[in-house]
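Entry:
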Amino acid sequence: MKLLFVFCIVTFTTDALACFSPPEGLVEEHQSQALFAFILAIIFLVSSLVLRLISNLKRIWVPLLFITSFTYIPAYLWHWGQFSGSCGTPEIVFAFRVWAGGMLTLLAYEAFHFLKIRRANAT
């Protein structure tokens, strides 16, 4: 029994995700990554709203509805912690990256819609 216990301890301790003392500067790096993804998401969000305001003011609810509904996905990922461990990618960095990706998708949609409206009005 002792041999089985020692075997399990030796085998499974290499798979542990806990990191009680992260390397020097890792917390600051994660904070800067999260801030960068957040700023990108805000820039994409504002740009998509500006494109919608220029192209069709009456349908401003379309990007606002996307923003409101898509914000739940990163909030869920952050809350439930899909990736744990302070030495790995923290939940907040992953959530902000997902949010920035969603806002980039919205910006691409709004840019496509804006160009389509401009081409239709040009002819």
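Residues 59-123 form one domain.
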